[in-house]
Amino acid sequence: MCQRPALPLKESIVSAKPEAEEAVKPPKSKKMLLIILAAVLLLVLAGGGGWFYLSKKNADLEDEEEVAHVVPKGPPTYLPMDHMVVNLADPGGEKVAQVGVTLELSDAKAPDVVKPYLPAIRSSILMLVSQRTAEELLQREGKEKLAADILAEASRHFEDESGAAKSKKNGAKAKKDKSEEVVNPVRGVLFSSFIVQ
């Protein structure tokens, strides 16, 4: 029993394998290359369109913010309000706060604009303070939040005027002229006294 070495048989299998792989591989087609290029081009166009849309939207938002944030002229003017005594929202209703509020205004002409709204602003302040508890108002964060809420409430009256000016333009998105622009004269809220009992 004489056997032949297995080496020549392996060589014949190995040499046949690369020929079989070459026969199975399809030829490279230009069609696949065009599909890949079209997909890449589509992605680039979609990305460019998205970037253009978002940059346009951000530019519109910046224009609106520029109108809202007009640089004040000169030093601020302060308008003190009468002290207010308010029952707080604590259980039992025995806690009260005495609050003195001073409005920081944009310029020397602003008090004439704000004074007609003082009764409504004062009422809003009373409502805001009466919703707080003594524990909230004794902490710095509570006072800062109250000041921010008072500023928002005081500013609301002047935003209503600017909204009325916009509706006169028949809903068009035309930019306002400087003469028609209504600027919020209230820039800040300061506490001149703050007592919680």
Any overview of this molecule?
There is one protein chain. This protein has 197 residues and is of the alpha+beta class. It has two domains: 9-68; 77-196, Tetrahydropterin Synthase, Chain A (2-Layer Sandwich). It has helices at residues 7-24, 30-68, 110-114, 118-130, 134-138, 140-167, and strands spanning 77-80, 84-87, 96-105, 186-196. Strands 1, 2, 3 and 4 form a four-stranded antiparallel β-sheet that branches. Strand 2 and strand 3 (96-105) form a beta hairpin. Helix 4 packs across helix 6. The model is unreliable at 162-180 (pLDDT under 50).
CATH class of the largest domain: Alpha Beta
Distance between the termini: 115 Å
Secondary-structure element series: HHEEEHHHHE
Strand segment tally: 4
The major pleated sheet works out as: 4 strands, antiparallel
Which of globular, elongated, flat, extended, rod-shaped describes the shape?
A: elongated
CATH architecture classification name of the largest domain: 2-Layer Sandwich
How many distinct helices? Answer: 6
The helix content is 40-55%
Q: Any low-confidence stretches, pLDDT <50, length ≥5?
A: 162-180
What fold name goes in the CATH topology slot of the largest domain?
A: Tetrahydropterin Synthase, Chain A
Quote the average pLDDT. 78
> How many domains make up the 3D coordinates?
2
In short:
With 197 residues, the protein is an alpha+beta fold.
Secondary structure elements and pairings:
Elements: H1 7-24, H2 30-68, E1 77-80, E2 84-87, E3 96-105, H3 110-114, H4 118-130, H5 134-138, H6 140-167, E4 186-196
Antiparallel strand pairs: 1-3, 2-3, 3-4
Helix pairs in contact: 4-6
